[in-house]
Amino acid sequence: MAATKRIPVSEGIWAEISELKRPGQTFDDLLSHMVEQEKKRRFIEDMDRIEAEGDFVELEFDVSDTD
C-alpha cells in the first residue's frame, strides 16, 4: 500500500472538494481525476500558445507506394 500523506486545506476548500466527490468516490480518486484534467487543460493551453506564437514551415516529403 502506498504511503498516506496529509494535505492541509481550509474548511472552505474542504467543503468545496467534498461537494465535487461522487457517492462512493474516494478523495484519492477525485484528486487523481482533477490532476489528469488539469494536465490536459495545460497541454491544450500550451498547444494553443505554440500555434498562436509559432513560426512554422511546411515539410515536404515523398511517400513511395510500396505495393
Fold blueprint:
Blueprint: H1 11-20, H2 27-53
Tell me about this structure:
With 67 residues, this protein is mainly α. The chain is elongated and about 60 Å long. The protein is built from 2 helices and no strands. The protein has helices spanning 11-20, 27-53.
Top keywords for this entry?
mainly alpha
Number of strands: 0
Shape: elongated
Share in β-strands: under 5%
Order of helices and strands: HH
Q: What is the helix fraction of residues, given as a range? A: 55-70%
Q: Supply Rg.
A: 22 Å
Arithmetic mean of pLDDT: 91
Largest sheet, if any?
Answer: none
Unreliably modeled segments: none
Helix-strand makeup class: mainly alpha
Q: How far apart, in Å, are the first and last alpha carbons?
A: 53 Å
If helices are DSSP runs of H or I spanning 4 or more residues, what is the number of helices? 2
Short précis:
The protein is 55% helix and 0% strand. The protein is mainly α and 67 residues long.
